[in-house]
Design goal:
Layout: H1 2-18, H2 25-28, H3 31-38, E1 47-51, H4 57-64, E2 68-73, H5 76-85, H6 87-92, E3 95-99, E4 114-120, H7 128-141, E5 142-151, H8 158-169
Parallel strand pairs: 1-2, 1-4, 2-3, 4-5
Helix pairs in contact: 1-5
Length: 191
């Protein structure tokens, strides 16, 4: 419901207000993303969109790898932290952060599209009734031939999770693979 969605958004804002520092890149960046970048799966000339960027660690890492990156999150507090933590990268590289709710219709006609879109932990937290809008926006923001890499928490029933992902994404994207990766957490820190 919309009420539960707003509650979750407020919870994230509170969580980001309380967070004192970003995660180190070694913990924040999944090995599968490093491999995708370093082995050429991700086009080195692609503009990158980081959906649900939180504190901006993935976006900043991608900018350090030479990409032009926009991080977006529906939490104003997260975007404020990202801009604060990575202000140097924002001023010296092509890195921006913007407050956008990917689960609501986009406010303006889309004029900027992306060749690589990343989602680390956003989609799995979206209530089912908002997922269709998420996918519609993702498609609108994708340029022809774009790549999409998603890191999602798996249910105990992996086949069920894969089926759900195929349901939402296969009409628009060719699903290349489902791979397991471990997303590390720094001991003592909360999401």
């Amino acid at each position: 419901s919309s009420r539960a969605y707003r509650f979750k958004q407020n919870w994230w804002n509170s969580s980001w207000h309380a967070k004192a520092e970003p995660e180190p890149f070694a913990e924040a960046v999944p090995d599968a993303l490093k491999t995708a970048v370093w082995e050429g799966w991700a086009d080195p000339n692609a503009k990158v969109l980081d959906i649900g960027c939180g504190g901006g660690e993935l976006s900043a890492w991608m900018a350090k790898e030479g990409y032009s990156v926009k991080g977006m999150d529906y939490s104003e507090a997260a975007i404020t932290k990202a801009r604060e933590w990575f202000s140097q990268e924002c001023s010296t590289r092509s890195l921006t952060y913007e407050v956008v709710d990917i689960c609501k219709p986009l406010k303006a006609p889309v004029t900027e599209t992306y060749g690589l879109i990343m989602d680390k932990g956003c989609f799995h937290g979206i209530p089912q009734n908002f997922r269709k809008q998420y996918v519609q926006n993702l498609v609108s923001l994708s340029e022809p031939g774009s790549r999409f890499i998603m890191f999602i928490r798996l249910d105990e029933n992996k086949a069920k999770t894969q089926s759900m992902i195929a349901h939402y994404f296969s009409p628009w994207f060719d699903i290349e693979s489902f791979e397991e990766d471990t997303i590390r957490r720094v001991a003592g820190k909360l999401d």
